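PROTEIN DESIGN WORKSHEET
SECTION A - STRUCTURE
LENGTH: 436
TOKENS:
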């Protein structure tokens, strides 16, 4: 009796360990699967592969799982593993699938069309074909074009799910234009409060702690899972686990993004994390690198914990935990004097953009009291007219006592803030004091 060879890890669906079923997302996948291709893009640690694996299990769907890697850049290697994957599901009928022979006159796009047509024909119908970690297929433009031509051959009943950190490449534009690609918004993969609570499992957490965890993680699955592991330890407290979970998350960021970056890119990452948001021109001014905007856009397009928002000028925003990690690296790797100077410059850039509150916070962090005082005085009247006098008072209170006492205008604006909360008599006495 023939012994069946064990399945290759490359062609095996990930095992599920205590994975949370997510019916909300299963329904989105059901809807998206009405089209030939479903493109699932999200940052690392978002639970993309786990979601698709649990979806296949929940729906009990026949499937091919293909784990992409750099070796797939070679067409012959790719075809070999695709034939093997088909054989695991379709048996002997997959043996008729052609091999790729790199002949001088071989037309890659024509071969791809023919191969995929035959490949899909041997699969059961309906069936799901999953390409996991698609971004690792470092294929040249001609290869991507051929791949896209091959996907034109997807028949009714077969759905291709692409799991990737990147959006479809330009060579897939024709597929997108013909509405053959359905996208799942990356934001959908963020856990809701109810899903976060379910992931944390048996830990009895009050509403305040749950809200704190949800706010800190922003629904990021990896952060919630890491925190759950720490909370599950005997005698663990929420505060201790948040601290330990934070360290584990920072190690994750270091391994996934930071440690593999060039030193000059590490510096750009750390400096652009100082302000809560940064525009392309500000990134250049802050880092002195003309390549800084390109790096920010690379992070955004690869969904590496970076958001891009349109406005008068496009700005980039790091995920809160990623920014916290970068600021920690800044503190560890950059001398204090350089950090202070960079913080001051970031504050000036934000002030010029009209982000006054953020600028004041950075001036405070840098100990730039005179710049802070000037900015308060410049905007106090505007803020008071907007009903934000209390905010003015809070910022004035953050200044050194000696500076506040030496500036009558600061005393005046501080007094104005209390008009809305103090009795008229107190306000009158404050005004009299200022006039004296």
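SECTION B - SEQUENCE
RESIDUE ASSIGNMENT:
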């Amino acid at each position: 009796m023939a012994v069946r060879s064990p399945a290759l890890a490359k062609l095996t669906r990930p095992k599920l360990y205590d994975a949370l079923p997510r019916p909300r997302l299963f329904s989105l996948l059901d809807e998206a699967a009405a089209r030939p291709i479903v493109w699932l893009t999200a940052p690392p640690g978002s639970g993309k592969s786990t979601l698709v694996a649990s979806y296949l299990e929940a729906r009990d769907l026949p499937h091919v799982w293909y784990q992409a890697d750099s070796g797939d850049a070679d067409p012959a290697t790719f075809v070999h593993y695709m034939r093997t994957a088909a054989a695991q599901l379709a048996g002997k009928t997959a043996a008729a699938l052609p091999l790729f022979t790199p002949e001088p006159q071989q037309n890659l796009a024509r071969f791809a069309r023919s191969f995929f047509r035959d490949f899909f024909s041997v699969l059961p119908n309906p069936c799901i074909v999953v390409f996991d970690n698609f971004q690792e297929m470092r294929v040249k433009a001609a290869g991507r074009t051929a791949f896209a031509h091959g996907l034109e051959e997807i028949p009714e009943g077969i759905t291709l799910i692409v799991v990737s950190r990147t959006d479809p490449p330009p060579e897939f534009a024709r597929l997108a234009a013909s509405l053959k690609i359905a996208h799942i918004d990356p934001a959908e993969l963020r856990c809701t409060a109810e899903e976060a609570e379910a992931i944390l499992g048996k830990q009895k957490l009050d509403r305040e702690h749950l809200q704190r965890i949800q706010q800190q993680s922003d629904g990021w699955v990896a952060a919630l899972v890491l925190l759950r592991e720490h909370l599950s330890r005997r005698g663990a407290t929420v505060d201790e686990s948040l601290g330990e979970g934070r360290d584990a998350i920072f190690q994750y960021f270091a391994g996934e993004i930071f440690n593999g970056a060039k030193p000059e890119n590490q510096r750009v990452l750390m400096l652009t994390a100082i302000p809560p948001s940064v525009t392309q021109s500000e990134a250049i001014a802050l880092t002195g690198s003309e390549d800084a905007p390109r790096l920010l856009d690379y992070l955004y397009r690869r969904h590496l914990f970076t958001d891009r928002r349109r406005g008068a000028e496009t700005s980039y925003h790091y995920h809160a935990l990623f920014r916290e990690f970068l600021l920690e690296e800044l503190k560890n790797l950059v001398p204090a004097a350089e950090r202070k100077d960079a913080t001051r410059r970031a504050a000036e850039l934000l002030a010029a953009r009209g982000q006054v509150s953020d600028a004041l916070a950075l001036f405070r962090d840098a100990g730039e009291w005179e710049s802070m005082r000037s900015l308060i005085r410049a905007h106090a009247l505007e803020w008071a007219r907007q009903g934000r006098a209390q905010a003015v008072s809070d910022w004035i209170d953050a200044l050194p006592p000696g500076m506040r006492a030496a500036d009558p205008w600061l005393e005046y604006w501080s007094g104005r803030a209390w008009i809305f909360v103090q009795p008229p008599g107190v306000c009158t006495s404050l005004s009299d004091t200022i006039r004296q």
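SECTION C - NOTES
Residues 1-5, 420-431 have pLDDT under 50 and may be disordered.
Residues 49 and 163 are 7 Å apart (CA to CA).
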